Amino acid sequence: MFRCFSLITVWVTLFGLSSLLAEPRARDLGVPFSGEPGPLNAITDVPGVRVGHQTLIRGEGDWIPGEGPVRTGVTAILPTGMDYRPVFAGWSTLNGNGEMTGAIWIEESGFLEEPILLTSTHSVGAVADASIAWRRERGYHDAEDGFSWASLPVVAETWDGRLNDMHGSHISREDVFAALDGAAPGPVEEGNVGGGTGMVAHRFKAGIGTASRVVEGGYTLGVLVQANYGRREDLTIAGVPVGREISNYMPELMMTSQEGNSIIVIIATDAPLLPHQLKRISRRATVGLARLGGFGANSSGDIFLAFSTAEAERSDKDDVWQVPMLENTAIDGLFIATAEATEEAIVNALVAAETMTGINDNRVYAIPHERLQSVLRDYRRLEEVAQ
Q1: Looking at the annotation, which residues are catalytic?
Q2: The pTM of the whole model exceeds 0.90
């Protein structure tokens, strides 16, 4: 794993991340951010973490429930790759009009034992069932417990009913398997992919975004978001009221509500943190969200999960483990990193997303890159970048 990660790092250093990804990212446009990103500026900068997507785009025109059009998918995050290893975790929420299955056991036990799957609201059950089947078929459980293990899948959702036939149950077991089997280290595709395919943020097309930070002590913290929240007038980027300045490019919607304001934030780190500390980390995602204009609307499911890949060691007693823990006095850098990476991941989702037309020819526009740059330049916040 380290060798593969090193090769990716060399490639990025020599050629730049843009050469690995089809879509530009926020920094490519000159959007300024604080903090030092990892080599990929992605959640996969945390060693061992893998991400995979399965994207479903089919049909066009009138909405026929059960048939389409389809604009949805599933995103998979494997905290320790294909190796089953429970890791410490904690979660929190800003507003709870949403779902993350398995959260009660994470709260109770302090452990994350599952892949993390992000999808559409009405596909949670199907994705959870498929996750159990995948774990069984791939042997993703304690090798000494081949038969009696039980799974409490971790599946989180946001509402893609503006563009997708959400009631149609279009995500299959094969789609979930494809996302999990295809999960890989390295650059992460963003925008209209996986669970983010039909998502909208601040009334611009959005979806999946990611970012990372390297903090004092050499620890890495990475964030992946599924962004589907927010009012246009609140959108603030780099301190600039972008949403008020770009008041056109509004969604063209028929026979569907503007509601469905939610965001899922997944935070990974290799810093040695205990569950209560990770819960504290998860809460700091709200700071990054607030910087962009998110406030936790009544209709919003703002759910945040943080986990640590740091490993414990067995002691001289079979049932006792030696667990490293970062001092609370040293945790502020990770709090700041969480806020910064969440903020940048959301902007990356907006920048990477492309205009999409879905059910009933509903159309949601991508944020116009040149206009965004112009607004930032007007406020003297644009960082000029080499083309």
Answers
A1: 262, 300, 302
A2: yes
CA dihedral (235, 259, 263, 160) positive or negative: negative
Domains assigned to the chain: 23-376 (3.60.70.12)
Is 154 strand, coil or helix?
Answer: strand
- Residue 136 to residue 142: CA distance in whole angstroms: 11
Q: How far is CA 240 from CA 233, 374, 377, in A?
A: 11, 11, 10
- Kindly compute the dihedral angle of the four CA atoms of residues 241, 244, 246, 249, in this order, to the nearest 10 degrees: 130
Instruction: Output the DSSP codes for 158-224.
Output: E--TTTS-GGG----HHHHHHHHHT-BSS----BSSGGGTT-EETTEE--EEEEEEE-TTS-EEEEE
CA pair distance 343, 237, nearest whole angstrom: 9
Q: Is the peptide bond before 185 cis (omega within 30 degrees of 0)?
A: no
User: CA-to-CA distance for 225 and 295, rounded, in angstroms?
Assistant: 16
pLDDT category of residue 21 using cuts at 50, 70 and 90: low
213 or 257: whose pLDDT is higher? 213
Residues 54-82 pLDDT 10s: 999 999 999 999 999 999 999 999 999 99
Q: Which two tokens stand for residue 32?
A: 């300024």
Beta bridge partners, 58, equal: 70
Other Cβ atoms within 10 Å of 66 Cβ, number: 9
Give residues with Cβ within 8 angstroms of 15, minimum separation 6: none
